[in-house]
Specification:
UDP N-Acetylglucosamine Acyltransferase, domain 1
Length: 248
């Protein structure tokens, strides 16, 4: 048992038995120690841990979870089934939904990730932020209270507080030779299916219209629209049907 900087007790998990170089599920001794420390492992037979992994009291670990490397998990967290966490730090009251992969990343208190999210190295999910299904992050800060809930790629980005990142948003960070940063300031709203072509900055409180490809900075409080104008051709469908009939 040890204490973190806030004096909260943490339990270092002992190394699981090894055979042929592979890591085995939690042993009865480990399970007893974890239970005594207030950690719940729902299915010890399918839960894998590393020698240096630490878990706080009140955390629940569901089946088929892999905790590896220097991972540290705070108190009152929920790690749902099918999750793999490597060399990452989770603060208290973090929820990781099913089938996420988290590597060399940090999740602050009250963060929620998944299901089916991928946090690559240097992802930093701040207090109360939300990362949803089929979202990938790499070397990105997602600020407190911000949300990226659906089908999004965020790479080399710094995102402020209370930002909404709409479904299908992509930070286009690679030009074929170099990576470039995207900055989204506090309170901005990124509409669905937007491409943010880095390097680019979205100002505080700005809006990006859905379907836009943004290549220039957007001033604070502005609305950016970068998409083709819709044209409705009345009667077009019927004319096409008549043409097909004439050819038949």
């Amino acid at each position: 048992m040890f204490q973190d900087g806030a004096g909260v007790p943490r339990l270092p998990l002992r190394s699981a038995a090894r055979q042929g170089g592979s890591e085995h599920p939690v042993s009865p001794e480990q399970l007893a120690a974890l239970s005594a420390a207030g950690v719940t492992i729902v299915d010890p037979a399918t839960t894998y841990v590393g020698a240096a992994v630490r878990v706080g009291a009140g955390t629940t670990i569901h089946p088929c979870v892999f905790l590896e490397g220097q991972t540290a998990i705070g108190s009152a967290c929920t790690i749902n089934a099918g999750v793999r966490i490597i060399d990452s730090t989770l603060a208290d009251r973090v929820t990781v939904m099913n089938f996420c992969v988290i590597t060399a990343s940090r999740l602050a208190e009250g963060a929620r990730v998944g299901p089916f999210a991928h946090l690559r190295p240097e992802s930093d999910v701040r207090e109360g932020a939300r990362v949803g299904n089929f979202v990938e992050m790499k070397k990105t800060v997602l600020g407190p209270g911000s949300k990226a809930n659906h089908l999004t790629y965020l790479g080399d980005a710094t995102i402020g507080r209370n930002v909404n990142v709409g479904a299908g948003t992509i930070t286009c960070n690679y030009d074929g030779e170099k990576k470039h940063p995207t900055v989204i300031e506090d309170g901005a709203f990124i509409g669905s299916d937007a491409q943010l072509i880095a390097p680019v900055r979205i100002g505080s409180g700005a809006y990006v219209a859905a379907g836009s490809s943004i290549t220039k900075d957007v001033p604070a409080g502005a609305l950016a629209v970068a998409r083709g104008r819709q044209t409705n051709k009345e009667g077009w469908a019927e004319r096409q049907r008549q043409k097909r009939k004439q050819k038949a």
